[in-house]
Amino acid sequence: MAAPASSSIHSPLRSSLRIPRGRNCSPPGASSISLLPRGLRSTSLGRIGFSCSSSDQILTRVAASSAPVMDPTKGEVALKVPTVVDVDLGDRSYPIYIGSGLLDAPDLLQRHVAGKRVLVVTNTTIAPLYLDRVVEALTRGNSHVSVESVILPDGEKYKDMGTLMKIFDKAIESRMDRRCTFVALGGGVIGDMCGFAAATYVRGVNFIQIPTTLMAQVDSSVGGKTGINHPLAKNMIGAFYQPQCVLIDTDTLNTLPDRELASGIGEVIKYGLIRDAKFFEWQERNMEALLARDSSALAYAIKRSCENKADVVSLDEKESGLRATLNLGHTFGHVRYRDFPNYYNFFFVLILGFPNKS
Question: What pLDDT is stored for residue 242 in this prediction?
Answer without folding.
Answer: 94
